[in-house]
Design goal:
With 352 residues, the protein is an alpha/beta fold. It contains 13 helices and eleven strands. α1 packs antiparallel against α3 and α2 packs antiparallel against α7.
């Protein structure tokens, strides 16, 4: 397949996602709808609302304009990639289709894919591959999913936690690789946010139950800031209280804080507590006070290797992002700020 054919194929996929869930009898849309329903059965964290959000977010990116903008610096190298290699991807399963960008990157650069799916998200990507092959049968030679131990590949992209990353490094360290560990996201509130900013920040915190590495788990707030301004914008996620797994987390941590006499703010749906850590559990948001934004910026800079997103309405640093954008990364917003396309295009030839 030529690069233009690959781009057209993914643009078509984006158009399909844009119509999800839809009410038409489009057979390809029905494949995705059926997979979405099965995904929630297999993983109760995958609400239909969250799957829909993931697909619509992908649809925003899978356009000719954005794909071509993303790939423009690499066009010559992609065109010269006449010896496709086999790339293994070990995918996470914390939020729906969290591994899609790696999947897209491998295929759009002309390589072959072997995917090892998380048991938490084992339904959606196979359905997407089925749709791709239905429209362009050539994809069958480029895509495979395995449940067996990975073998016969040239490079690997593996995403997991700090524990699994040690396993990945031990077994896959001899291959060209990208191995991702735990990352967290934070938000800095300056006190100058509009209500619209805070409403958007609520999405950054609570979309996908806060399970993603792009989900904000820690707030930095100025001394004297009234958190009610932020809390008042969390109402759109009140339905989480009816989700049994989320509610179990909420009840558990509330009990722990009461027993240990740890001060907290209880909204009835989420708990906020002062804590220096950046990684908070599901149903809990940590916060910490600061006095000076410039000093805080330097402090955060020292933690850069631990952070995925830094959300703030003031873009003091180039990689800080605006409220409401944490779960809408552009194609060129690489996880851990590692350029996946550059990695895939500089693997060298197999015979070298």
């Amino acid at each position: 397949m030529t690069l233009n054919e690959r781009i057209d194929s993914f643009v078509g996929l984006g158009e399909l996602f844009r119509n999800f869930p839809g009410e038409t009898d489009d057979p390809q849309l029905e494949i995705i709808r059926a997979a979405a329903k099965q995904a929630q059965i297999e993983n109760p964290w995958f609400l239909q609302e969250n799957i829909c959000h993931a697909l619509l977010s992908l649809a925003e990116r899978l356009t000719h304009e954005k794909l071509e903008k993303w790939l423009k610096p690499y066009m010559r190298k992609i065109a010269d990639n006449d010896q496709p290699q086999t790339i293994a991807i070990v995918m996470a399963g914390n939020i729906p289709l969290v591994g899609f960008h790696d999947f897209l990157s491998v295929l759009i650069t002309g390589h072959r894919l072997i995917a090892k799916l998380s048991s938490q998200d084992a339904v959606l990507l196979p359905a997407i591959i089925e749709v791709l092959i239905a429209n362009h049968p050539e994809w069958k030679d480029y895509t495979s999913i395995t449940r067996q131990p990975l073998s016969s590949f040239d490079a690997i992209i593996a995403t997991g936690n700090n524990n699994s990353s040690r396993y990945f490094e031990y077994y896959f360290g001899k291959y060209p690789n990208i191995i991702r560990k735990n990352r967290n996201s934070i938000a800095i509130i300056t006190g100058e946010e509009t209500n619209e900013d805070l409403y958007a920040l609520a999405d950054d915190v609570l979309l996908y139950f806060g399970l993603g590495c792009r989900s904000v788990s820690k707030l930095y707030i100025p001394v004297g800031y009234d958190l009610k301004q932020f809390i008042n914008n969390l109402g759109k996620f009140e339905y989480y209280r009816y989700h049994h797994k989320y509610r179990n987390n909420y009840d558990y941590f509330k009990s722990i804080y009461i027993i240990n006499k740890i001060p907290f703010i209880d909204t009835g749906d989420i708990i906020l507590t002062e804590n220096n850590s950046v990684s908070s559990p599901v149903s809990v948001i940590f916060y910490e006070y600061y006095e000076d934004l410039r000093t805080l910026s330097k402090q955060i800079g020292d933690m850069d290797s631990q952070l995925q997103n830094i959300v703030c309405h003031k873009r003091i640093k180039s990689h800080w992002i605006l409220p409401g954008t944490a779960q809408h990364p552009e194609l060129w917003d690489y996880a851990d700020r590692i350029d996946t396309i550059d990695f895939l295009l500089n693997l060298g030839k197999k015979d070298e």
